[in-house]
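Researcher: We're teaching a course module on how sequence relates to structure. For the next exercise, students receive a sequence and then see the predicted structure as tokens, so they can try to spot secondary structure elements on their own. Here is the exercise chain.
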Amino acid sequence: RTQERLTSMSSSPWNQPLPPAHPGVVPGPQHVPDPPLASFGARLVARVIDYFLIAVTAFVFFVVMIIVVMILSGTSEFSDASANAWALLFFFGWGTLIFFYDWLYLAAWGRTLGKMIVGVKVVDSVDGSKLTQSQALGRSAMFGLPQTLPLVGNLFALGESLAMLGDSRQALHDRGAGTKVVRTR
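Model: And here is the predicted structure for the students to work with:
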């Protein structure tokens, strides 16, 4: 009886393999082409958006902190030492802000807010997979931390970013971290 049931089940139309959609073509793994690399213009616009967002965040932070210090100290005046400390933090903290901004966004989503808006993403340069934590950390450090040195660090970041105009179309921070920036739309 069990044998009869198995025989009738195997002859059922529900248990028959489907004919190929295209006769003569054997189904198998399909090669998905790599997404195109992001253009210099798209990357530049994304970076300008990111710089704007970082600057607004830093400005709001400084204003809030100044108000908090004034309230806690009970005075509306700053000492020279306090003003100098804030100025040093403002000038030398920029690269640190960029580093943390890039690192946290790249580690979580593979792109910053500017890259999301423009439609580009940072991926592993070998297989196009999501960045590892060390890739996100290394890429962000190579780009952001030199900018803790006013002017010299900014010129270095500009120069190493312009390296993407060469044959590999990768900035030095991408080459060093083993990443590439691709279009997502």
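Model: If you want an answer key for the exercise: Helices lie at 2-10, 40-73, 80-92, 94-109, 113-118, 133-144, 152-162, 172-177. The chain has a mean pLDDT of 84.
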